[in-house]
Amino acid sequence: MTHNSPLKALWNHFTDKRSKVIEASIYSVLNKIFDIAPPLLIGLAVDTVVKKESSFVADFGITNHLHQMYLLGFLTFIIWALESLFEFLFKVRWRHIAQEVQHAFRMETYEHLQRLHISFFENQNTGNLTTVMNDDVNQLERFLDVGANEVLQLLTTVISIGTIFFIISPTIASLSFLPVPFILWGSFYFQRRIAPRYLGVREEAGMLASMLVNNLSGMATIKSYVAQVFERKRLGQQSLAYADSNKKAIVLSSSFSPLIRMVVLCGFLFALVLGGIHVFEGKLEVGSYSVLIFLVQRLLWPLTRLGETFDLYQRAMASTNRIMDLLKTEVQINDGSKTLAHDSFSGNIKMQDVSFSYESGNKILHNINLDISPGKTVALVGTTGSGKSTILKLLLRFYDVSEGEITVDGHNIKDLEQDNLRSLIGFVSQDTYLFHGTVMDNILYGSFDKTREEVIEAAKMAEAHEFIQALPQGYDTIVGERGQKLSGGQRQRISIARALIKDPHLFIFDEATSAVDNETEAAIQRSLERITKDRTTIMVAHRLSTIKHADKIIVLENGKILEQGTHDELTQKNGMYNALWQVQTGARVQKT
Description:
By secondary structure, the chain is an alpha/beta fold. The chain has two domains: about 20-325, ABC transporter type 1, transmembrane domain (ABC transporter transmembrane region fold, Up-down Bundle); about 340-425 and about 540-590, Rossmann fold, CATH 3.40.50.300. Helices cover about 60% and strands about 10% of the residues. Helix 2 runs antiparallel to helix 3, helix 5 (about 125-170) runs antiparallel to helix 7 (about 180-215) and helix 7 packs antiparallel against helix 10.
């Protein structure tokens, strides 16, 4: 997806910033107008020195040449003071706008990402998304901070100096400004050529950032498989790809300024040579000639920087396109409007003829029917890929069902606010994620209004209090990124405490004991037996010993319910559950 006019898209997007942009633009224009005024005063000074009582200033009634110089000195002071004032004002205003826009864009993209469905993140690389929210936003900030003012002042310079030139000498003006159409044509030509190159640079930057994020997160795996050389080579290749992409853009953008400088030189030579000839012939005053020469210099300098300004602009517009593309990503799971009160929520769950397919089209679930009574514990078992975790994701509304409906306490979950639905659920995933912070911070996550005493009580119920107290700073111990300073079992028990402190009426456990030792499993199992009492609980487990006391066990295979019943009922059948149970208890050796 691309945008024909990213600048227009920005203008339409930030309607609340328009008045500030207009104000900053006025300051930029006024600053440049007063910046151009000193050459005019120099011309008047030369005219006064040469003609004295017959000078241009004398036409205003000031005939004494000393008084004329005093007046020019006073005007010079006023003009320089105003130029300095407007320089201060435009710099402050543009920089404030740059900071406000980068903050607003970063927060807007982040909030939009939070509303997107889980499959979006499964299909994206984290590094690229990070680049959009950080590096691309910063590119736009740099343009607003510096480039926007330079563009405005360049336009003001061309228009102002052009007007003065045509007033003083239309002939010289026509020749001096002859190169301007070629400069404008060249600018548009370069824009078309360089825009796709900078878009490529941004894409390569995203890939590089993604690789860095993945490698830093997986450093333990890289080291354990002695893959440092491989990863260094792979990263080097991507870094070179980014550098090569940048070089292609740099070569094109760098050629712009020298070409512009040579074209501008033609205009300067016309003013210099032709103006001098006109002075010799008496067609042009010496003061006017001085003004023309000084103004041509004022015109030449910003035009030679046009390439740098244009380069900054193109980088910003390429980044703007990427930001806008992200913001236009469709939110596929729309929020409902109903809410359920925490106190009155009973935890009655029903799935009626539920089928589900991912975007690839392969059907994962086929006509699932479940009725989970309040306060009961239901376990989902089955081989890998049978659909167990998918059911949990549908209950949490990470995805929407393709067919059928899911209700909680008689309400279709599509009609409920997503935040309200999830606030009623205590979810413990097999992929335990702890944030960089203290143990206390991680248990309180999502329940920020709870007290320290409530945190400790939740930790005790999760059988985590004892090991937490043994940590160097107890509950104030930093766990490290993703909780890397703790063992898998410790992370899992903190995760259970985090779910427990919400005091939910519905618990969902996805392989809560899949990656822990027997001692930790026993501790977790004891805590689960306590905290699931009188609460609706849905558990996914490969270790059948953890769910043998469930009120109902659902056996899934290829997205269909194969068997259901209690542990005793299912072991008496010669079915899949009984076969799994015998394998895990050692009664039967699984065939290989």
